[in-house]
Amino acid sequence: MGIFQQYSSVFNAALVILILIIFFSFVPIGLWITAFFSGVKVSVSKLVGMKLRRVSPGKIINPMIKATKAGLDLNMDELEAHFLAGGNVNTLVDALIAAQRANIELEFERAAAIDLAGRNVLEAVRVSVNPKVIETPSIAAVSKDGIEVMVTAKVTVRANIERLVGGAGEETIIARVGEGIVTTVGSSTTHKQVLENPDSISSTVLEKGLDAGTAFEILSIDIADVDVGRNIGAHLQTDQAEADMRIAQAKAEERRAMAVAKEQEMKAEVQEKRALVVEAESKVPLAIAEALKNGNLGVMDYYKLKNVQADTDMRNSIGKSKD
Fold this sequence. Notes:
By secondary structure, this protein is of the alpha+beta class. Helix content is 67%, strand content 11%. It is built from 13 helices and four strands. The protein has helices at residues 2-26, 29-37, 44-52, 57-69, 76-84, 89-101, 108-116, 121-129, 170-186, 191-196, 199-207, 232-294, 299-322, and strands at residues 132-135, 139-142, 147-159, 216-231. Strands 1, 2, 3 and 4 form a four-stranded antiparallel sheet that branches. Helix 4 packs parallel to helix 6. The termini are far apart.
């Protein structure tokens, strides 16, 4: 009986320890204690509810503690809803604290919308306080005299909190600045005007209001570098001359081919006529024989004809020897 009671006591102790382990692993008592002493009012049942909703309590309570210490009045349910929507609660709270310190008006709803839109709301607040410099790649443009000019610009921008949701990003700013540079250089009479006065590019681009519809406000555009590239006009003229030469060669080849074809055609006609003459000459003896047989041609007439042919042949041979 004593052994049974001993085993029963050990079993009960093990059971109690197991229950305590399960309880403390499921209920974040340590987090609740931290929140309590940090001034964040949250019940154990609420922490258990977060566990059941598959929400990590630490990702809600820790940012809530930071917000409370910073003097922000945030709703824990809103933070949890933002977490469930796929937002970054910690970054959101950091952005709200940074905005408060910088005296920037930023409401929770707007900050949550910016975060859910895929933008870094904390970085946006920082850029709103400390302007950011965007350097464009080397942009090639051609002035009216045909000289290529390579321009690199640095654009100083400040984040516009109100336009972060739905506003265009840095790529649009770079594209618009590049378009302004190409337009300004292209309207210059000579490339020397651009080299002598690069500030004209900045002033012209700024006047176009390139930050419209973007998440940034352009503060300044500074031309960092201007280089002279190729002589595009000369290259185009050379290419045009080569193209004209190829066209002329093609037309000359076409005329030569037509002349050769015409020559071959004339040779064929001459050969055809010679064949007709030979055929006609081959019929003459037959005609003479038929005329002698029918009595239409006498013997004396035949000899006269032969004399005429011999005389004609002699004259032809004499003419050929003179040639």
